Amino acid sequence: MLNPEPTAEARQVARAAARWLVRVESGELTEQERARLQRWREASVAHEHAWHRVQALRGRFEALPPAVAMATLGRPDVGRRQLLKCLLGLAVAAPAGWLATRELPLAAWQSDLSTGTGERRRVTLADGSVLHLNTATAIDIDHSRRRLTLLRGEMSLRLATPQPFLIHTAHGLSALRGGEMAVRQDDAGCAFSMFAGTADLQPLRYSALTLGAGQRVRVSDQGIGPITMFDTRQPGWREGVLVALDQPLGDVLRDLDRYRPGVLRWAPELEALRVTGTFMLDDPDRVLTILAATLPLEVHWRTRYWATLAPRKKIA
Amino acid sequence: MIDRADSNAQAFHQLYQVNRTWLEQWLSRRLGSRHEAADLSQDTFMRVLSSAQPIADLKEPRAYLLTIGKRLLVNFYKRRSLEQAYLDTLAQLPEVHAPSPEHRWQVLETLYALDELLDGLPWRVRQAFLLSQLEGLRYGEIAARLDVTERSVKRYMAQAYAHCLLAELC
Lengths: 316, 170
Fold this sequence. Notes:
Largest sheet of chain A: 12 strands, mixed
Shape of chain A: globular
Helix content of chain A: 25-40%
Number of helices of chain A: 7
Largest interface: A-B, 76 and 70 residues
Oligomer: heterodimer
Distance between the termini of chain B: 28 Å
Strand content of chain A: 25-35%
Number of strands of chain B: 0
Order of helices and strands of chain B: HHHHHHH
Number of helices of chain B: 7
Structural class of chain B: mainly alpha
Low-confidence stretches of chain A: 86-110
Number of strands of chain A: 17
Low-confidence stretches of chain B: none
Radius of gyration of chain B: 22 Å
């Protein structure tokens, strides 16, 4: 219902990328094979993309303390399956990725550049271009070939020179030709927003398009959304603020959740309450307090990390 | 469009009104905690609300709620089992190495995401993959450790890499 099965083609590409990486890692790759790998990568955007992603996998494990990770991730499987079965009395076949967005957090600590939850970073590249990383973001960057891979999170790049710069994402490739672009990757899709200049966009499974200043488009597994206009002057995460203009509370909370380590939940009745305001991203817990002061809701703190929002009880 | 969204909101409201207490009680019996049941029930309804399924078309709303609720429950237990394994490991560390609560949370979230990513891989494949990724062992060393041929290790590794790529795609 939530996650469509990968297509036969996607499976084939994933298997091929995996086999190539195993060949490389085994140290047995011949010169001929190296050339074949290069040809395979160049044969399609999807191949090149899968190759980037399969290599990026290693980074997701590297930063963990090995002994701790081995003991937890390698814990006996049998025990945990049996535990589940006896607790639930049902066969366990949880589809991967069911708990999509919420539980896929920062991971690639060992990528070239990354931020933790609630952290933001500004980096000036050698040619003077400026890169901003938003919360829980990881990217790999190849300066000499002028390209980067957004592994997760949100970033923006302002080019100092008109030389193109390639941005890889899980949903497509963008060639920025001067100006400034923000890219946000989440589990469901990828949003590209042009602040200035133009960029060519090559979504993985759909046809190419060009984005101009003030235009935004979202690409997901379901397709390409409409190109919408946005106000490039409105302050946002790069200025450390979250601006809500008569928005549903649910949308604001989902956004705020990205900046807050921990669990944030709210009662469905609160989803549609309207919110207007400018909130500082540096202190998300304070934003919750402000919301509780201005809307008919209250915050229950289950633990230091775990906040639940509920409708305020009426005083009899 | 607006009419449809409105009628869906109305159907949701009704679904919530009629079934909330029932679902909370069902979850509470399995969790043994009212607070956690309330949270999981909220999660269940939020998932219904954010899914593409038109609520008015549901023939068996309770069966539908239970399907989602059960999966959330499975995930809850998986998370708890991982957390327990993590805490057990930490308990064996000397005090000075104990990470801060903030860091602990980050490690735990990362572990959980990776646990999900590897979910469904056969035990040996998972072991081979972890030895390669976490301990940096070469294929030959992994083969010796698991007492299998290097050829098998290569097959395991290819399977694990493809699995992760496809899981991330979902």
